[in-house]
Amino acid sequence: MARMSMHHNLLQLLSNGRFHSGEELGRELGVSRAAVWKSIKLLQKMGMTIFAIRGRGYSLEHSVELLESHKICSEYMTNKDRNLEQLLVLESVPSTNSYLMERIDNDWVKPRAVVAEYQSEGRGRRGRNWCSPFAASIYLSLFYSFDRGVADLGGISLAIGLAVRKAILSLMPCELSVKWPNDLMWKGKKLGGVLVELSGDPLSECKMVVGVGINYRMPNGTNIDQPWIDLSSIVGDNLPSRNELTGALIESILDACSVLDNSGFEQFIEEWSLADAVVNQKVSLQLGNKRIDGIARGIDSLGSIRIESDGVVRSYASGEVSLRVTE
User: Fold this and answer.
1) pLDDT digits (tens, 9 = 90+) for 75-104
2) Quick one: 310 and 287 in the same domain?
3) I need a labelling partner for 210 at 20 to 30 A (CA). Which of 8, 22, 34, 249 fits?
4) Is pTM beyond 0.90 here?
């Protein structure tokens, strides 16, 4: 894990889109040309596209907006009664979720959040890796303490997925849906996802760390093992600020957590029906070694997916479920 370093200052200099020589960059940063070269190579290794042309110097593929806590807070703190206890912006970290999970303290009561420019071991659902190039996406994890127990939070992944969708739509209206339980989709392509980790008593207070990944402007040639999309491809140059989007995500997720804690998942069922990416479509559900084919019929009051198979509708809620729309 590392806080902001020379990479941050280097990218600030390169963000104007012009070519800069190694000598010029070294002079501005107070380091040698060799140190600049090493920093460039490390950023390229972390997924950034930086052009290096002899005689001209270095240039970014496109301008980059780096995350800054004061800018995120200025967007987030529209309700001062729900201030975060802490908002930490990191340059790199193995996983933002792991960072918070390893540090949870019994004395934590107020929400906390961590965002990173880069994850070396980003995690998705079911142990999958989450592709996390430097400054190309939003990598956000948030801690929240619930008065409800784990057993009473069955629909939490869906509620968070809806909150992420709501935050994005507030800044850039587009056709976003949510594929059960919480994949953000645009016309059949994955835009982002949610990873919820709960700990505590099944019947009383529990603590949550939720991780959110949103593809913002991914590098050309990014290799992901499923159809995917980023915000840049959807809206072109009309992208919202990364800081603004991060603030909107924090605010929307905290709103959803408050509603869930006070009123339960039932408050989200109608919204889900409007955002459901697979309702009334043929689906395939992988449950362990068993595969279930049928028609998706929405969700039940606990957030479980309802699938009609052989004329019978059943609910499925296992955390190991994998859902795929059939051709």
Assistant:
1) 665 554 457 889 999 988 999 999 999 999
2) yes
3) 8
4) no
Is 125 assigned a ligand-binding role in the annotation? yes
Q: Would the annotation count 97 as a binding residue?
A: yes
Residues 279-294: pLDDT tens digits?
998 888 888 788 888 9
Residue 125 annotated in active site: yes
Residues 21 and 166 in one domain: no
95 annotated to bind ligand = yes
Residue tagged active-site, from 33, 82, 190, 314:
190
Q: Which of 234, 304, 303 is nearest to 267 (CA)?
A: 303
Q: Which of 3, 187, 291, 324 is catalytic?
A: 324
In this structure, the answer to whether residues 310 and 177 fall within a common structural domain is no
How many Cβ atoms are within 10 Å of 73's Cβ, its own excluded? 16
